[in-house]
Design goal:
This protein is 20% helix and 28% strand. By secondary structure, the chain is α+β, with helices and mostly antiparallel strands. A hairpin with a 2-residue loop joins strand 3 and strand 4. The longest helix is centred in the C-terminal third of the chain and has 19 residues.
Length: 542
């Protein structure tokens, strides 16, 4: 974690949990409250601090701007609201709780994590690990937890930073950073309230926060969702049937996928099975943006045999589509994708790639991230899915990287995802839409999602609070889950993964990864996953 190389003498404001200070970040610099221009008023339990001016250069220079901080004491903590104004526009605002004992952070999907001497930054929203909702706890030596949660009612990025003191790492600063919406730049940012409290029991705080989130995003109850088909409510096993790797290496062709379903149907009622198809369209990811069957896998006839054969058994089929990735060298990219390429809040394209071919350099540039808020891309993708659905009759469409969030000045990625799903379902309302990963703000958009992972170790969205996720959604294993025979992740770039079996919990559907040879090489392990599917059905499906 990078940091400033000097101590800034920010004015500290009193709260029952410790002193706090405020930083205001613009696109140009970072500013603090001018200690010579502060006004403090108290009205009952609320203290209001007005700064009629800001400082910069670590406090050495004065400048324009205004900040109002409202500190309201509650029976078990404090709520703090900040209104920041600067002529350059406000990018984000940091509220810092000072001089806390350094401890593990808690409230994450992956469990408690230690804070190294160099500090730790935890981000929201993150669909795969870290925070699915903006709440984080900092453990204290006495066993209590300092909990910070944002009371925002819309999806906006937050960062929680624990920064140990360089000369006394047993103490730290607990930073709560809220980003303004880059699509609505303004000189004024009304920061959603932060609530801080100290507790010996995290459960009541989680329950209170879950109630807030469910109301904020109008999350439907799982039992009442109209975008969940009846067959999904009887599904107890997702089978990941891997097709073609990026390199062109084939694991299962369409006939091999159908044969796998027939064999598994001898161990479990096929009506309990949903087959997920990564790499069904040919070279995995390489031609994202153009979807169709692949001749080496069996072509249109083979794909039709797969779907009709699965339906004869009673199983369901879910091919994979890229929600926000397209190959730059596809015809028409400059029209239906290029103007909507994803941007950071700075206005620049994020840089990132995957090591698809073991070249160890992450320097492929044929794929580009596209914001689904861009209508031409949305329509280009939706029309392909609808056309393929009408031609072949599969049961679900999986949207890859659907949980991607970026504070894009061109528009909300979350609102874009909602519009994409609505566009698909407008023409085929009976089609299940599933997606990759999850955070609270997309819970009502997509009912079925993949688990997350942290460096291929599965993370489950029903943790740490089952009520938040399971009340609305269900998950299945991420595509990086290893197969039980070889640990192969099939088409996924992880290569190999020792994790091949998931816990049996209501929010987590048992998942079996299959590559060529899996069923024959590890029948006992395959049987264990099938046993999990039987157990899931008995416990949760009736």
């Amino acid at each position: 974690m990078q940091d400033l190389s000097f101590r800034w003498p920010h004015p500290r404001l009193h709260t029952p949990l410790g002193p706090v200070s405020v930083r205001v970040h613009t696109g140009e610099n970072v500013h603090g409250l001018d200690p010579d221009r502060l006004t403090v008023t108290t009205d009952g339990d609320t203290t209001t601090v007005d700064a009629d001016g800001l400082v910069w250069a670590g406090g050495q220079q004065q400048g324009p701007g205004r900040v109002t901080v409202r500190i309201t004491e509650t029976p078990d903590g404090v709520r703090i609201g900040v209104r920041a104004q600067h002529p350059d526009g406000v990018r984000c605002v940091a509220l810092v709780l000072h001089d806390q004992p350094t401890g593990d952070v808690t409230g994450l999907r992956e469990g408690d994590l230690p804070v190294p001497a160099t500090g730790r930054v935890v981000q929201y929203p993150n669909g795969w690990f870290d925070l699915a909702t903006p709440l984080l706890g900092l453990r204290r030596p006495d066993g209590t937890v300092t909990v910070a949660r944002s009371l925002d009612t819309q999806v906006r990025s937050k960062r929680f930073a624990v920064v140990p003191h360089f000369d006394a790492p047993e103490s730290c600063e607990f930073e709560l950073i809220a980003d303004a919406d880059a699509a609505r730049p303004s000189m004024v940012f009304e920061v959603p309230e932060w609530e801080l409290r100290r507790t010996g029991d995290l459960a009541p705080v989680l329950a209170e926060h879950t109630a807030h989130v469910r109301a904020a995003y109008d999350l439907p109850a799982w039992e009442q969702r109209d975008d969940v088909p009846d067959w999904l409510r009887q599904t107890s096993l997702v089978v990941s049937l891997n097709g073609m790797h990026f390199t062109g290496r084939v694991f299962l062709d369409y006939d091999g996928m159908l044969d796998t379903l027939r064999r598994l149907g001898e161990q479990l009622d096929p009506r309990r099975i949903l087959a997920y198809l990564p790499g069904w369209e040919g070279r995995y990811y390489r031609w994202y943006g153009r979807f169709g069957t692949d001749e080496r896998l069996g072509g249109p006839d083979g794909f039709r045999r797969l779907i009709e054969g699965a339906h004869d058994l009673g199983a369901r089929i879910m091919p994979m589509f890229g929600a926000n990735v397209a190959a730059r060298d596809l015809p028409g990219f400059e029209h239906w994708a290029a103007p909507g390429q994803l941007l950071n809040a700075s206005g620049h394209q994020p840089i990132g790639s995957v090591d698809w071919d073991a070249s160890r350099h992450f320097d492929h540039s044929w794929g580009s991230l596209v914001n689904p808020a861009y209508e031409p891309w949305r329509r280009h993708l939706a029309e392909q899915i609808v056309q393929l659905y009408r031609e072949y009759g599969f049961d679900a469409a999986f949207l890859d990287i659907s949980a991607m969030y970026n504070n894009d000045p061109r528009g909300s990625t979350t609102a874009g995802l909602r519009a994409l799903v609505e566009l698909i379902r407008q023409d085929c309302p009976e089609l299940l839409i599933a997606g990759e990963a999850w955070f609270d703000g997309i819970g009502g958009i997509i009912p079925l999602v993949q688990d997350g992972h942290r460096d291929t170790v599965p993370t489950h969205h029903d943790q740490p609070d089952p009520a938040l996720f399971t009340g609305t959604n269900r998950s299945f294993g991420h595509v990086c889950l290893g197969d039980p025979a070889f640990g192969s992740t099939g088409v996924h770039e992880a290569g190999y993964n020792r994790h091949w079996r998931l816990p049996v919990r209501e929010g987590v559907l048992p998942t079996l990864t299959v590559v060529d040879g899996t069923l024959d090489a590890a029948p006992d392990r395959v049987a264990l996953v099938v046993q999990d599917a039987h157990e899931y059905a008995a416990k949760f499906l009736g």
